[in-house]
TrEMBL record:
PANTHER family with a match to the protein in the record: CARBOXYLIC ACID TRANSPORTER PROTEIN HOMOLOG
Subcellular location, principal: membrane
The name this protein goes by in its record: MFS transporter
Lineage of producing organism: Bacteria, Pseudomonadati, Pseudomonadota, Betaproteobacteria, Burkholderiales
Transmembrane segments: 52-75, 87-107, 119-138, 144-166, 187-206, 212-232, 299-327, 333-353, 360-381, 393-414
Domain called Major facilitator superfamily (MFS) profile: residue spans: 53-482
Molecular function as annotated in GO: carboxylic acid transmembrane transporter activity
Organism per entry: Pandoraea faecigallinarum
Amino acid sequence: MSVDVSLSTAASALPSATAPAAARSGPAVIRSAADVARLVNEGGARVSNARWIVAIALGGVFLDAYDLGALAFGLKDVSREFQLTPAGTGMVASAITFGAIVGAFLGGYFTDRIGRYRVFMADMLCFVIAAIACALAPNEYVLAGARFVMGLGVGIDLPVAMAFLAEFSKLKGRGNKAARVAMWCPTWYAAICGSYLLVLLCYSVLPASHSALLWRIILGFGAIPALAIIAVRSRYMSESPVWAANQGDLDAAARILKRSYGIDAVVAGDAERAAPKRPAAWSNYGKLLKGVYLRRTTLATVIAVASSFAYNAVAFGLPVIIASFLAQSILTTILMSLALNLLFAFTGGLLGVRLVPKVGAWKLTVTGYAFQLAALVGLALVGKPDGATQVAWALGFLALFLLGQGFGPGAHSMTFASLSYPTSLRGVGVGFNQTLMRASSTVSLFLFPVLAAALSTKVFWVIAAAPAIGLLALLAIRWEPSNYDVDAEDF
């Protein structure tokens, strides 16, 4: 994997990495971890494997979303095949979210402790093993156990994927750190749409006598992209150069810069090969709640929890809303769910990626929450639609909600979580954020059917509290992570 970098005693006479890229006529000289971070921030990814690394990291996010949503349309078939009680159905449905809660907490620590690359490869193996086990599950206990392992992979993946996206991107301009991190959102929606398309394809080609195989095919398919990522890892993937430099291994950082960025970098003879100023430790979770990080953690957590609660209730409950509240058939439900996610959530996510370098994550998240609040109030006022006009209004409000989610809190919940912390705390920062967000998801997924059954369409008044709380938090804490060099806080 590595490319040898020869050092010489004359290295100190070469141009420093702190000089602008255009002013360097020879190799960049690394004298400290700060120099490595500056080289990345300058945008060396123009000519290298770095874009492939970003794409592969986003492939992990695709798997997260696909595996979380894959069982949505097959749960009834699972219940029928294994003759499950409501408690058994709940066990199978929630196993992945409980695994994700555990995985996020562990993944955050190990991402900072042993490095981004090793953790990423480990969670890919989780996806492969769990997907195959799900497809072949002989009973509900094996299925629930496999889904728990899959959840571990999902939970572990986001901290490491966000670290890759942030640490292989430049600081400012188009395609900056905030934009790259926000790419997780349209990738997520693409995966949801992909699962809908796969369900639709299987639904149309499988004979009625084999319809019971649908859920096994959908769950087992998740192993294929994970295997593809593992297959290309040796050619394109590498450790984060900023993480390696923060561990005091400047030689490894220089090799990664050469391999992944095409940057000719050498380590100066008088380089500062210091141990990390903030070494990975479980106690780092406590540091998220101290000093300047307390406000950032509070805001990132509120955004993540509020966004997750509302999104899971509406988006993952979308088939229920369309089928029950709008009284549509299963085929129409699949098609409408696909169209709404693709046209509004996915498009909104792309819009968020494009706008964040200039507008900033704070303004986009405020606007997105405002859209969602208006949409949920509108859905509550419409109630159960009576006639084509009210159905059109209801669908319009669902579209508005998903659009606001896409360019607002959906895209930038990860921007706040990832770019509020420097490299030394990024893993635990995202891990902590995801642990609480997954817990919120679990509560939301459990409560939505219960509240919908008890309150009917008045449930939208309850869900509207989430974007309202998110708006209040943003107005109280005006923190803008986009275009801010948070990694400099490590030096």
